[in-house]
Amino acid sequence: MENIRAGIITVSDRSSRGEREDLSGPEIRKWAEGQGITVIRETIVPDEVDLIKKALIEFSDEGLDLVLTTGGTGFAPRDFTPEATRAVIEREAPGFAETMRMKSLEITPHAMLSRAVSGIRKHTLIINLPGSPKGVRENLRFIEKAIPHAVDLLQNQVRDCGGK
User: Which of 58, 76, 151, 160 has its Cβ near the most Cβ atoms within 10 Å?
Assistant: First the structure.
């Protein structure tokens, strides 16, 4: 994963106002650095669809390979990350979100409340993660092996996908 350039977007009203420390964004950074991923950009935005969309568009238009969001994926009235993500992606990549929900259900029945989505904008893979450090750690572990191949495919680095 050494050549992957990533961005992290924390979606939280309270963290964006400085009322609560962001713990999930740093958890993503820790995971990324442990994988050899270079984190290029990080931001914290409130739970506002237009601001989430703006950050997603900026990060992907800068040519980042991977954008990971944390927060705003549940049932709360201001959880809009999936809607913002759907508005900017050009193609869905549902396997990531499906896998996270499926594997998380082995840990907690609340996993079925996740509305996280994943998809592609230009050459950028965008994945919504939960808003808790524990959820971030668990879910990244479930999908981490598929990320490098997905990025290679998006960067047109794979010539023979099926092999022999």
Answer: 151
